[in-house]
Amino acid sequence: MAKQSAEVGVEGLKKILISEERVVDEEVQAKVEKLITELHETKHLPPKDPDAQRLDHGFHFFKTKYLTHIQSISVNLQKASIPSKPLGRSQLQAGEAFVGRNIANMVPQFDQLRHTEIGAVIEYAVKSLQVDNILVMGHSRCGGIERLMSLPDCAQTYDFIDEWVKIGLPAKKKVLQEAGDLPSEQQLTLVEKESVRNSMANLLTYPFVRDAVVNGTMTLRGGYYDFVNGSFEQWKMCTH
């Protein structure tokens, strides 16, 4: 089933690449397809490189110093009553990261007419700041993913939120195909993680991101904070 999901992801990306006005080199397209396939087939990547290890150590520091010892923080995080602060959880300092936040931490596909504010954040980070890494961070008890899972059977509708979280529909579809018999809470967790991988794949539809990744000057990373169980997972996409 993982292979089928990877094939779906590759085919979807092919359509986007073909629809672009500029021609994508066959070698570049082959590298991108390989990255997408590896991303869908990799469930968890233990941190090995220095940047991944730093993120892992940062979460471990937060967990041992705050999450484990301060009961109020632990309880509130598990109830999702405190918004996630990525810099604080990873121990990155001010100025070390350029942060963009939105509902469910999703990245839409490249589109110059829709979601331009997200495109502007990514473009500024890549072209102006020339960042080495882009990290998509998901977390447990995500209200945006919970909303995605409830669509379309919702009594209450939203003008903006519902359309936005539909960016994660490929993640939801994949999980329902592979784990449709699991309890809803477990499905929610799986979609929270798969949505991160979906956003990582969507980042490759941005020409300037794709060029940097294929050329080996940038790494795409995915992370997932589980504040209920006190764990942190990572994924990585790069050509070097």
From TrEMBL:
One of its GO terms (biological process) is carbon utilization. It comes from the Eukaryota. It catalyses: hydrogencarbonate + H(+) = CO2 + H2O. Pfam families: Pro_CA. The keyword Transmembrane helix does not apply. Binds 1 zinc ion per subunit. Belongs to the beta-class carbonic anhydrase family. This is Carbonic anhydrase. It comes from Hibiscus syriacus (Rose of Sharon).
